[in-house]
């Protein structure tokens, strides 16, 4: 059995068979589900105030009933003036009186209505009242102008674009395939981000621990530093992949169960902090399940999945090597480690933001150029893969990333080799750079 | 036949010459001491022998084969800064290190079982490293160093932080291994241990070797003609022979003859003076004194 394999095996098994790993792996999907249920519960509560409103309409502007979709707010039409309704307000029949008057000029579009109340109205209630009032004015105008309601509704049209390639041979791209791309790309970008960040940190901490417990010199009298570093990176990466796989299998299950039992869609709840994704998810909802499944089967999985995995692996190697180098240089100083990690974390976060922008504009200059910058490529190209980018861009991006990850692993190994055996004194950034050029 | 030879080995870190043309050779199956003050370059020298770092210039040979850029598998190394993975059990840990040393899983198991038996570890080898006492940890570390039956065993400050029981255990194991043919190099700045166990030594100061050779020969070569006499009867007030009396406690006297006389002549003289000699010997200087003297002269140079 090769030494590298032994190291990988140790890194993997000591982590995966740890109680905390098993608990965390099972707990996170459940926690997310639980959290979503609670958030969904809070969000689904009707936040509009319960209130009875009298609409004072002495000029008989309203001929119909007041249509209102919010059951918490009760409207009562009255031809009495506010002064006459004051008594009923005092006895508590109404909490508010809104005065309406037909506009003198039919072209007027801004109206300032008076609502007489001692209640403090929250935003939702105010918005609801405003929208009801604006409907009243609209209906009044339609009637006055002798228009037909149905005709007006027919004025609004919806357009969807089906792109049809002219000279290039490619599969038909529909509006819905963009939606699929957005969801898929978003998921891939976020996965890449979380994985690189979390596992990279694990690599760093593990290197620091090895240096701190002084085990490293014992190990290094048996194996080369590069073997130890690579073994660690691969082993920790394997642990992350295992966790990811468990979650990929587990999450939809948990999602289905929660939506069955609590009627909460956890996928919708998760995406709320990302407008682009949110929109896409909403559109996907509109497509309907059969359409969605048909589109999913149209995706070129045989290309996307292996490509994604390659970006995944190289991206992870790139960042994990840098993290390992930092871990070896700082030893037991947590604060110093944090400082050195910040620039790297910033790169990863920037990559994620560009990737999120790439969901809206996967062929933009920003997205294309970022795909060729190795620090952003894993996230950005990972996202763009779902949008069927030109082949040369995918391959060039992957090539640059692969070469860079090799280069940075090489540089990191040099730093690691020197740093891991340095005890006591703090190394400045300049010194660390010098280590790169040391002869072993 | 020397098992290990260093030939003008040097290593520079930035501007600092950590090791500067160090040469020595270690004969097979002896206990060899590597001495020097803190920061003299002992650990760097050892790291080069074990292949953890590589020399900038010079050569290292093991059994006549140049090993400059390799990790020689014949070596077992217990560093001064030694640790273990806290969360692993003793068994898993030693199996891991044994296999890294090139033992097959099967052989590692056999070896480990016999060590557990010999060092009386049956009650705790399934425990995690973090649950062990210091003495237990040290036993485990020692096994990790020797489990692959190295030809050369390198121990860097092996007794630092050891309790007397562990010290004795390691001493016993060292002499047992030496009898079985293992060459032992051990690095320290504690001189009394050197005199006690080492046959040959090399003295390193400021990255250079300043003294090398057999312990007894070094002591003989550095002798200052000091003698000690213990008598059974009263000693005379003054000895007629010309020598400086350095110390007299009761019937014991330390002295240094002014002229060059050998011990037989001195003894003859005492017998003529009717002194009942209980013991009479020339005092060789301790390695400690030689060490301090050599380091001081080499620092002045």
Description:
The complex is a heterodimer of chains A (440) and B (301). Chain A has 440 residues and is mainly alpha-helical. Helix content of chain A is 67%, strand content 5%. Chain A has helices at 3-16, 19-44, 82-90, 123-144, 149-153, 175-212, 216-220, 225-262, 266-270, 275-287, 289-298, 301-330, 334-360, 365-371, 377-384, 391-419, 429-435, and strands at 51-56, 73-78, 96-99, 114-117. Chain A is elongated. Chain A starts with a helix and ends in a 5-residue tail after the last helix. Chain B has 301 residues and is an alpha/beta fold. Chain B is built from nine helices and 14 strands. Chain B has helices at 42-50, 90-100, 105-118, 134-146, 164-179, 191-197, 215-221, 263-272, 287-300, and strands at 2-13, 16-27, 31-35, 57-62, 65-66, 75-78, 152-156, 183-188, 200-205, 208-214, 226-231, 243-249, 252-257, 277-283. In chain B, the strands form three sheets. A six-stranded mixed β-sheet of chain B has the order 6-7-8-3-9-10, with helices on both faces. In chain B, strands 2-1-4-5 form a four-stranded antiparallel β-sheet, covered by helices on one side. Chain B has a four-stranded antiparallel β-sheet with strand order 12-13-11-14, covered by helices on one side. In chain B, helix 5 links the parallel strand 7 (152-156) and strand 8 (183-188). Chain B is globular, with a radius of gyration of 24 Å. Chain B starts with a strand and ends with a helix. The mean pLDDT of chain B is 87. Classes of the chains: A mainly alpha (440), B alpha/beta (301). The A-B interface holds A 1, 3, 6-7, 10, 14, 18, 212-215, 217-224, 421, 423, 434, 439-440 and B 14, 47, 50-54, 56, 71, 75, 77-79, 81-88, 96-97, 99-102, 105, 141, 144-145.
